[in-house]
Input
Amino acid sequence: MKFSLVIYGAPWTSPSALSALHFAESVIASGHQIFRLFFYQDGVFNASLAAVPPQDETDIPARWETLIKNHDLDAVVCATSAVRRGILDVSEADRYDKEAATLRYGFTISGLGQLIDAIQEADRVIHFVE
Amino acid sequence: MILHTVNKTEVLERCLALVSEGDTVLLIEDGVYASLEAPSTASTWASVDPAVSWRVLETDLAARGISDKMRAPFEAVSQAQFIDLTLAHEKVISWG
Amino acid sequence: MDNISYLLLVRSSPYGSARARAAIDIALTAAAFEQAVTVVFLDEGVLQLFDGQETDIAELKNISQMIPALPLYEVKALCVHLPSAEKFGLDVAGLAEITPLDDAGLTRLTREHDQVLVF
Output
């Protein structure tokens, strides 16, 4: 079965980010598929390249990156949510004349239409709300 | 049949007003505190709909030190059972 | 694209969080993709419907101005939960293009729609 997960909360600040991560990892472990991970609102902070958590805490963005890479997942970060929060890919950093790109590897920035599409294509959609 | 996830106690009342026979309510994150066997939750559960299934995510219960304080009719479920619940219902409504 | 029906339950006040805005953005996007969208203002979400929101000095983006525009973008099914409106002293009589909804109607909508999102 195909799942789409929508993540609204920031890592560490909102428990929902870790709930989503654990759920996503379990979906894969159970032999199901993830059609898309869609990061929205403060959820875009899960895709932060620059976040440095304390060593004794779960590195949530890194765990997402690993899951995405190992299973070739489609991880989309909502463009309007991302840009206003300073999560920029190379082309956006360039466009807005910012010093650095801050989008983590494995994630792509795209529009809210990708959320509608993710809902359309999945058997089940779970929203991990703040 | 709908699976309702509830991640904070403040939204539980709104969820309960919209639950119907055959639905399941799953408490997660801080929502698990609504399953505490304590005066804090007595009025909420004064009458419990027997046609609804009441579940709590066990890892969230354990993290909060209340695994042994869960009131009936709640049952603890694992992450894998959470996934099964999503598939056993036609849709999931996430209350938060 | 097949039709998926969306019910957006807007429970948040207009300026206490970003949720109100998120609901509107998703409503507009779903409608742009020709999905059926219903928006219900309930609980503190009815606070979005107070008129006379003067946001200039507070420098807030005026959410209330976006709501009357929704029908222009094909989000025509707008509802207000009557018990919530009464609780906050909102007079629904003056709300053009927003249908009053009782508890039974609210329950019915949550069962009928494919996707129910809570804001």
Observations:
- Residues 45 and 85 of chain A are 8 Å apart (CA to CA).
- Chain A has a mean pLDDT of 97.
- The interface with chain B takes residues 1, 3, 15-16, 19, 22-23, 26-27, 30, 32, 123-130 of chain A (CB under 8 Å).
